[in-house]
């Protein structure tokens, strides 16, 4: 009799476990579908993101959006986000903690900045981008120099020679 009670209890626990796991199965199936959709868009998304970083970094927000929407239409990726594709949420949180504004344009600019091989020209009248970059790149020993400094050329030469990062600040109104 004691054995029968233990067996019944085991059967009840197993039934409860199966009921609870049925919801997990549905969730896993949904995740499989989502991953399959992402995999299907991987090549086109990579192409679109690479083109965005390569060709649209110097364009205004309006021009970027117009061209990007045209490209999305051609590739049939109308709901695609280059920012979501290229940057993980944790990286965006790190950027925010280091002072980068959370608007889409600022985050797209950071995405372009960190994924290009070009030397960027950043027009930053508020100084927020400069402050963000100094915090974000502090482990890489970035040196901030002024373009009007008498030692400017020497600092650039030393940076090139020793592989240092320079943030060149030019507050002149000649631009």
UniProtKB/TrEMBL annotation:
Q: Pfam families from the entry? A: AAA_9
For this record, the Gene Ontology CC terms, alphabetical, are: dynein complex
Query: What GO molecular functions are on record for this protein?
Result: dynein intermediate chain binding; dynein light intermediate chain binding
Q: Where is the Dynein heavy chain ATP-binding dynein motor region domain?
A: 94-172
Alphabetic keyword roster: Coiled coil
Coiled-coil residue spans: 18-45
Q: Which GO biological process annotations does it have?
A: microtubule-based movement
**Superkingdom to which the source organism belongs:** Eukaryota
In its UniProt entry, what is this protein called? Dynein heavy chain ATP-binding dynein motor region domain-containing protein
| Organism in which the protein naturally occurs | Brugia timori
């Amino acid at each position: 009799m004691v054995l029968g009670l233990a067996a019944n209890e085991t059967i009840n626990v197993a039934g409860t476990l199966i009921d609870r796991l049925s919801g997990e199965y549905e969730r896993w199936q949904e995740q499989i579908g989502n991953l399959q959709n992402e995999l299907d868009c991987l090549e086109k998304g990579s192409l679109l993101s690479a083109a965005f970083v390569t060709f649209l970094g110097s364009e205004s927000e309006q021009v970027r959006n117009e061209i990007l929407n045209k490209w999305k239409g051609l590739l049939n990726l109308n709901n695609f986000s280059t920012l979501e594709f290229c940057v993980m949420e944790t990286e965006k949180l790190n950027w925010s903690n280091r002072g980068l504004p959370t608007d889409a344009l600022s985050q797209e600019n950071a995405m372009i900045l960190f994924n290009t091989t070009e030397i960027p020209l950043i027009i930053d009248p508020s100084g927020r981008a400069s402050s963000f970059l100094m915090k974000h790149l502090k482990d890489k020993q970035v040196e901030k120099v002024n373009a009007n400094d008498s030692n400017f050329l020497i600092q650039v030469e030393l940076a090139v020679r020793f592989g240092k990062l320079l943030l060149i600040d030019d507050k002149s109104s000649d631009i």
